[in-house]
Amino acid sequence: MTIKEVPYDMYLKEVNQKLTSRGIFLTTKENKLNTMIIGWGGITYFWGKPIFLVAVRKSRFTYNQIEKSGEFTVSIPLNEDLNKAIAFCGTKSGRDFDKFKECNLTPIPAQKIETPIIGECSLHYECKVVYKQDMIKENLDAGIDKRWYPDYHTFYFGEIVASYIKE
Ligand SMILES: Cc1cc2nc3c(=O)[nH]c(=O)nc-3n(C[C@H](O)[C@H](O)[C@H](O)COP(=O)(O)O)c2cc1C
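Above: the input entities. Below: the structure tokens describing the complete assembly.
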């Protein structure tokens, strides 16, 4: 296994495409290791830092995890077919399942943070939360509120401290 570091913005198009088509893995580790699927978010730039922005509803097990750990990894299959794992991890909760075990996913230690990456994926981002923001109903477009809520997201701005391809 070799790790090839890549600039944080080298795969913007691919990340966006995977996010909006199938979803990508957001992994957290507190007492338990867990991963879920996200379809919204993306790579951006704030405060002179590369940022991975993710949106997690308060009902997710992941919400409790990330609140405590303050970090996460994002793993993206580029050519690998992980559709089955995506379907499972995007519908079942870490409260009820060990998703790594159920989906035969391999946790691999990250380079700079405590949260592992998913060995079956090729593209990875390690992130430390530098800002978070709960959604505020009064600030939200009424049409979006009606269509998508009441289970509001919390937005986590994760500074990308490492980005690489695992070969
Ligand atoms: C394609 C897809 C995209 C998703 N995007 C998000 C998202 O951006 N934010 C979110 O909170 N949940 C999202 N979900 C739902 C979570 O992945 C799902 O509720 C998961 O079971 C939560 O796991 P957890 O309870 O272990 O955290 C998405 C699910 C799918 C299938």
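Note for the figure: The radius of gyration is 15 Å.
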